[in-house]
Each structure stands twice: as C-alpha cells, then as structure tokens.
Prior knowledge:
Layout: H1 3-9, H2 14-38, E1 45-48, E2 51-54, H3 60-76
Antiparallel strand pairs: 1-2
Amino acid sequence: MTAVVEELMASPVLPEIVSQLQARLAEERVRREQFYAEITGEEKTEFINGQVVLQAPATVRQLEVRDNRQVRRDFLNRPQT
C-alpha cells in the first residue's frame, strides 16, 4: 500500500473519511450519468474529473486544413485510368 493509504489506515477518523469519499464518488457518478444522458454529439464535450469540459469549436483555418487533407487523400486514392 502507498504511504497515504497506510496513514489513513492508522487514522482514528478513517470511517468519516471513507464516508466522505463514498459521498463524493456517488455525486460524481450521478453527474457522469446525467452528462451521458444529455450529450447530443453536436458539441464536443468531455467529462473530466467530475466536470463537464466543452471544447472550443474548430477555427476556420482548422476546417480548411481538414478539407484540404481530404481533397488530397481523395486525389491520391482515385482509381487510375
């Protein structure tokens, strides 16, 4: 076990700490379930450390680069005549 766990195991307040951790984990589980129930796929979101993180949308330049890469890939993969 790690030193932190060893220290906790020796603590007289271990039951209270365990109760607090269980409560926090239960709250996080509810938030995670709610997050998954509400995501639509239209926006880029992640659930990180109990928080919903919304990613910034792609810039015009990023979209242009993506499109140019696809055009190039299509050109290189076209059937040869």
